[in-house]
Amino acid sequence: MKNYFSVLLLVLVLAGCQPSKTENMEEKKELKISLAEWSLNRAIRGGQMSNLDFPRVAAQEFGIYAVEYVSQLFPDDTTDKGYLQQLIDSCDRYGVKSTMIMIDHMGNLGDTTETARKQAVQNHMRWLDAAAFLGCESVRVNGNGFGSVEAVTAALVKSMTELGDEAKKRGLMVIIENHGISMPDGSWNFNSFSSNGKYLSNALKETNHPNVGALPDFGNFAEYDRYQGVKDLLPYSYGISAKTFEFDENGEAIQTDYKKMFDIINASDFDGWVGVEFEGDGVSEYEGIKKTKALIEKYWKP
Prior knowledge:
Oligomer: single chain
GO molecular function: isomerase activity
CATH class: Alpha Beta
Distance between the termini: 51 Å
Largest sheet: 8 strands, parallel
Strand order of the largest sheet: 8-5-4-3-2-1-10-9
CATH architecture: Alpha-Beta Barrel
Order of helices and strands: HHEHHEHEHEHEEEHEHEHEH
Radius of gyration: 22 Å
Number of strands: 10
Protein name: Sugar phosphate isomerase/epimerase
CATH topology: TIM Barrel
Helix content: 40-55%
Shape: globular
CATH superfamily: Divalent-metal-dependent TIM barrel enzymes
Structural class: alpha/beta
Number of helices: 11
Strand content: 15-25%
Keywords: Isomerase
Number of domains: 1
């Protein structure tokens, strides 16, 4: 009997010294692909499909079961719950998840005029409510303003802190995309505050809010190096907008070296949604989406 317990004790000790299967296996990051609605903006604006068709098209045409809405593609800028319920019903029908609403034209969150800044924050509230109703994880906002870097940063930190507090109540993230700004003459300028990775990452660091993050877009860094910009924002990134414009004969993106970009992403601990966003006109929107999805799948390494 004594020998039996000695052997049993030895077995237990040796078993305790062995690494578990979990410890032997490296954690693998799951590739989560979503479809940015802007990829189909021409079809929607041209009447070939509607915002309500978006979940069906994502699932049936592209095999993508997560979608990112764009506020300006909602008819009449509506956030009516009856309409939103139709979107939920469409998602349920096709097994699609609503991940995000990209909010545009609601004012500059980095506006250095306090009255305008506060109004911009207030303008976003109904879209936070809409995103929560749809079961989204986040809303995308624009973090720009006119003025010195210091002044815009201070205004943006205020706005993002206020929106982050509201997002927390709704179980949402508020994420900033490097994006352009509407100029006083009505033109669009991509060379804005948020398109500088250093400026935007510093503002996010200063905000330091658990419900505030970033959505780096491959194509919107303007004069700032896009690879460095993604590096700057990855520590704060809740999602990635994998934008394409044109493709070469091998199906590679012309404007962005996808291997180089995904080497940077793969080396990080990012594990959020990777959004397909085609914005070119050399091929159809459908073909551009398929080519972009193929590139993501090619270069993502778990």
